[in-house]
Amino acid sequence: MPRRAREGDSSTPANGCAAKRRASAADGQVLPTPTRWFFPACGPKMALVLATAFWCAPVAASPPQRPPQRPPPRTPPPPAPTAPAPSKSCKKGHEKDCPVKTKHSKAEVLWVAGVMQLNNPGVTVSVDAVIGALVNGDSCSLSDALVGKVVFEYDEGYWHRDVDRDVRKMEALQRHGLDLVVRLRRGCPDLPVDPNWRTPVVLVHTDSQDTIVQLRATATAINLPFNLKAMEAAVLTGAEAYKEIDTRTTAMIALLTARYGKGAGPLFKVDGVKSRLLKPAFVEKLDRVHAMCGKDTTRMRKFMCASVAAALAGPDADQFFQSVERLRAMGIVGKGLDTFMCGGVASRLVGA
Prior knowledge:
The protein has helices at residues 13-26, 44-55, 106-119, 127-138, 163-173, 211-221, 228-260, 280-292, 297-303, 306-313, 317-329, 335-341, 345-348, and strands at 3-4, 38-39, 145-147, 150-156, 180-186, 201-206. By secondary structure, it is of the alpha/beta class. The strands form 2 sheets. It has a 4-stranded mixed sheet. A hairpin with a 2-residue loop joins strand 3 (145-147) and strand 4 (150-156). Helix 3 (106-119) crosses helix 7 (228-260). The longest helix has 33 residues, at 228-260. The protein is extended. 26% of the residues are buried.
């Protein structure tokens, strides 16, 4: 019959528990009843050995638990493109090979070279002729190109969603005594044409980005013969002209930087300055502003703004300088004159 270890026996593990229980009872504390251990047919010493082996047996270590992992952060969806095929190097949506951010897009220059060949089928279009047409267009209500008395406009759908603005542009062109205005509308809404306009307007609608397809549609709209080989050669000339624009603009920036000083860098970041550097008359007006500011480049940078650039590029730039002299005579000088030029005021001084 199994033998139970006695509480009073000092050789049993229960002895210590009993002593603690008696001491706690004297203090008024109540301890839980200790567990009784039963070992079959063994003496006190063997019971102590077995109890010691039981209590001191190594416990198998539980496998290390990995700390709870946080779920991966939710990545927001990529933003929608803000323009068709945007360029990383040019915020205006031009191609990647646009180091100086020219005013004219490559697609526009290629189309202009093609329509110049359409208008002059017996003359091979040159790089200088294409650049000259683009520069001349700037003085005609900021048109894309001007050849003789014919204006060519290339409208991309993303940038020409405002029909009212395009209509105002057409109304402004009526004051230049032109013979014809040709507007290619790629993916653009239709424009209302006023039959009472003095200058006729031809709208060419297409959804194609292929320059040859655009030129074929243009030739059909203005009733001109279409020669595929001549158009392909003109498009290649337009590509060379596009690269040459950047080359000449970079060279002009280097020339003016040497003339005005190293601090002239921000001057070329003003809207409308860099795109007009190929126009000799505009560069001449910049030199005049530099002299008016006491050849102080910092003062010139503060004076220049988009409104001033537009006034200098216009045909009435001399009136602009006369108006500035009147303002200085009225006491508007220094920082006050710089502040006065901003906000479109400079362009309104012409004709004042």
